[in-house]
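User: Hi! Is it possible to get a structure for several chains at once, not just one? Here's what I have:
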Amino acid sequence: MQLYIKNMVCDRCIASVRQQLDNLGLKYKNIQLGEVELATDPNPKQINDLKESLLKTGFELLDDKKATLVEKIKNIIISMIQGYSEDEFNKKLSVVLEEKLKKDYHYLTTLFSSIESITIEKYAILQRIEKVKELLIYDEMSLSDIADKLGYSSVQHLSQQFKNVTGFTPTQFKQLKENKRKPLDKV
Amino acid sequence: MIKAQKVHIKGMVCDRCISTVKSELENMGLQVTDVSLGEVSFSLTGDNHDIELIDEKLKPLGFSVLMDKRVKLVKSIKALIEEVYSGHFDFAPGFRFSELASERLQKDYNSITSVFTSLEDTTIEKYIIDFRIEKVKEFLVYTTQTLADISFRLGFSSVAHLSRQFKTVTGFNPSHFREIRNDKQRISDKSARK
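Assistant: Yes, the chains can be modeled jointly so their relative placement is included. Here is the combined structure:
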């Protein structure tokens, strides 16, 4: 049986979900961002326990079809930007989403916008800026390297977008003392 | 004594990462006072905990400790020096450490030296000389290689160059150094037998 889980963004989330499944004695075949394939069909009590356990750690078990699809879209975007998956930025986001989800892009955007009250494009931008912030704080790559890595056409494009979203230029951001990063599931 | 310390950590992206890092550090016996994305503060009780130990513990979880760029640079210079001047390096004719360093580290040698000097209170050249002389001592005492061999293996241009540098640093000339050491060893061997 396939379960869909909200708010998984990284390998630690996968480890956390795996641990909770183990604790509840549920056998699984496969765990990915946002998806768990169980080996057996759980009874309603087990599902309830899992739900509660997940809620405590900030996840959520999804039973709504539309919400599941939205979560899938998010997972694809996060994987792309965090570099978990092979898809580099040479393909358009719309094409990647259509291929992976086998759904018309128009349908996906309207669904996403209606549930999240933000468009897919805007969401992808926010995720990307969050990654830029992370890389800026590490102070290991130059801005042009970052732009290159995240598929921006130029440094100018990155700087402009960064300023639009955060209100700071990348250099100003680096000089901020406070930490301005957000958890990826809260973007 | 209680000391507060702050470490920057790479690879943290969500709240689960925060709780993972926190529990990992607490398992190590550290008192974690504050964790946010990419930053951990903890207080040290007693002896100094090694940052590298933390790095080791966090590696399998997909994190790593973020080291200061400059500290990292100095570390890699020292590693390079050790690689070159440990007796196994193939010195090309006209070899210059500065050229190799700026090629390997992809940086202008001027900036490399100024970072090194500001953090280490000694210049790269001085550091290399000390390192090389230590190696010469090691070879003199523990092997029976001739001075000519040693000077070749450590990239000195000539035996005379080695001898002169050895004398300025240690005050002995190399063969004298070897004799003294041999004498001492003979004495300690004797006393050990008694």
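The two ends of chain B are 47 Å apart (CA to CA). Chain B has a mean pLDDT of 83.

User: Great, thank you!
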